[in-house]
Specification:
It is found in: Cell membrane. It contains twelve helices and three strands, in the order βαααβαααβαααααα. The chain has about 300 residues and is mainly α. It has one domain: Rhodopsin 7-helix transmembrane proteins (Rhopdopsin 7-helix transmembrane proteins, Up-down Bundle), CATH 1.20.1070.10. Strands 2-1-3 form a three-stranded mixed β-sheet. It is globular.
């Protein structure tokens, strides 16, 4: 059935065929998980903004990574929590917005992780020029582009879908993504395919750059105990974060493009949600425990509170 698209067009989403008791249980578990994501990322952001000792390039990039986690999860969790209590439908405008937010957040993560890799490369491999390379002005430009580029790339991706005639209204996913909207258009726009492939290649380039940076860093760090210690202290959290995020996104992409319909609903949902579940919750703990300055900041706060209680 061909449909003229309007703002009032409704899509039905899949993946929530649960009983009322299961929905309520899932609602409270999801709410607790989302609160943990919010508290963890906000704690890191506040610690970096408040403490002048943490206003170094590495921590500024980390602060933006946490902001991006809040931005991306805001595109999924509030709507998902609402769906658990009401009907699992979404308007055309809401679907396009959700796809844009989730996609741009994923791309934003790659941009910020690339900046972190470059920062560690300069700090460990070219320490004598670090201060002259990572100036405040340059950091500001880097951060600005790490937000503008993903937003622009995903805006172009979303814009090329607008107005396409639809031959269906059911999205076989727990939330909206552009690929699923493309799959129900009567004739997928060529411009959208071109932009999608460009975006994939562009961000694959980010991944190659990050991978090369860490290979070079490891090779350089092995030659010196001091450099190896610095690598383990500051780069290990980035590596764990990168591996976790890339694995979850890659699995989701592979499943979305080549996935089997024989998989259970629960596994289907997990594959779709894992990059919105694991990295946003893990990153604050990885960086909070491993990066000395952030860990010390939180330990000092706990110590001061205990001292105040005793007095």
């Amino acid at each position: 059935v061909m449909e003229n698209v309007s703002v009032d067009t409704l899509f039905t989403l899949s993946g929530l065929n649960f009983t009322l008791e299961q929905r309520i249980t899932l609602f409270f578990l999801t709410l607790l998980w989302y609160i943990m994501i919010l508290l963890g990322n906000i704690a890191i952001i506040v610690a970096i903004i408040v403490d002048k000792n943490l206003q170094e390039p590495m921590y500024i990039f980390l602060c933006n990574l946490c902001f991006n986690a809040l931005y991306g999860t805001a595109g999924f969790y509030p709507k998902f929590l609402l769906d658990l209590l009401t009907s699992h439908v979404i308007s055309y405008a809401g679907c396009m917005l959700q796809g844009f937010v989730i996609h741009s957040s994923v791309c934003g993560d790659f941009s910020i992780l690339a900046l972190m890799a470059y920062d560690r490369y300069v700090a460990i491999c070219r320490p004598l020029v670090y201060q002259s390379v990572m100036t405040k002005q340059r950091i500001s430009i880097f951060v600005l582009f790490s937000w503008l580029l993903p937003l622009y790339c995903m805006f172009m991706n979303t814009a090329t879908l607008l107005g396409s005639r639809l031959c269906g209204s059911h999205i076989n996913r727990i939330y909206c993504v552009n690929w699923m909207i493309t799959s129900i258009t009567c004739s997928p726009p060529k411009a959208n395919s071109a932009v999608s492939y460009f975006n994939v290649l562009f961000y694959f380039g980010h991944f190659v750059f990050i991978f090369w940076s860490y290979l070079y860093l490891i090779r350089t760090a092995i030659s010196s105990k001091e450099k190896w210690g610095k690598f383990m202290q500051t780069c290990l959290p980035h590596l764990i974060s990168l591996i976790t995020f890339t694995t979850t996104v890659l699995l989701d992409l592979l499943y979305m493009r080549f996935g089997s319909l024989d998989l259970s609903q629960d596994l289907n949902n997990f594959m779709a949600m894992e990059f919105l579940l694991i990295p946003p919750a893990m990153n604050p703990f990885i960086y909070g425990f491993k990066l000395t300055k952030i860990r010390n900041k939180f330990l000092n706060l706990v110590y001061i509170k205990r001292k105040d209680v005793k007095e």
